[in-house]
């Protein structure tokens, strides 16, 4: 099992899973997502997103739309998706990651702590109100310092042993379409005409 950046060809798959799970697809961009993949079957097990809100004074980082397929739950998949996203936030220079969620208890095991809505940066305060009105009425604000985030040992062990039912088709090799290239219209610098 490993977690990698989402690919362009996975947009439809991501949007379908987000809709099935009733998650937030606001300002959807597949490049903001990561996907958990089983190494043997190449089956997708879960996904998540970091959304960066650029502000006049400072930018803030939000963890959102974390989903694990039912057959992969309780095996540490979500924990590793979240870990990858928090690492990414740290690499991008963020000290704090916020989440506006109805899964506060789940995130607490990683070090996320509840905060008052008034403590949120302005962009997230507005987003919380919108999210509570349209997507998750019971969403609450949480935050974690990137350097205080941790994955409990039992979730690391489960992730190493994770498995599901029947595997999907193996993940296809990357092609020109994965990079936004139309192979029927593209010309290639070193095309030999063969």
UniProtKB/TrEMBL annotation:
Residues 156-194 are annotated as: Disordered. Coiled coil: none annotated. It comes from the Archaea. SUPFAM superfamilies: Acyl-CoA N-acyltransferases (Nat). One of its GO terms (molecular function) is acyltransferase activity, transferring groups other than amino-acyl groups. Pfam families: Acetyltransf_1 (PF00583). Residues 166-185 have a biased composition (Acidic residues). InterPro entries: Acyl_CoA_acyltransferase, GNAT_dom. Residues 1-147 form the N-acetyltransferase domain. Keywords: Transferase. This is N-acetyltransferase. It comes from Haloarcula mannanilytica.
């Amino acid at each position: 099992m490993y977690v990698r950046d989402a690919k362009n060809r996975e947009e439809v798959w991501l949007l379908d899973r987000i809709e099935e799970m009733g998650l937030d697809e606001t300002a959807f961009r597949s490049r903001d997502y990561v996907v958990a993949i089983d190494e043997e079957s190449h089956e997708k097990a879960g996904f998540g997103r970091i959304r960066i809100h650029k502000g006049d004074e400072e930018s803030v980082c939000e963890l959102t739309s974390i989903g694990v397929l039912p057959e992969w739950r309780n095996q540490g998949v979500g924990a590793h998706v979240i870990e990858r996203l928090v690492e990414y936030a740290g690499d991008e220079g963020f000290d704090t990651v916020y989440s506006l969620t109805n899964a506060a208890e789940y995130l607490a095991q990683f070090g996320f702590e509840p905060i008052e809505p008034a403590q949120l940066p302005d962009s997230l305060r507005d987003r919380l109100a919108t999210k509570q009105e349209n997507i998750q009425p019971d969403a609450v604000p949480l935050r974690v310092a990137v350097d205080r985030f941790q994955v409990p040992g039992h979730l690391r062990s489960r992730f190493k042993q994770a498995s599901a039912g029947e595997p999907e088709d193996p993940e296809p090799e990357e092609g020109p379409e994965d990079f936004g290239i139309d192979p029927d219209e593209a010309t290639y610098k070193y095309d030999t005409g063969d």
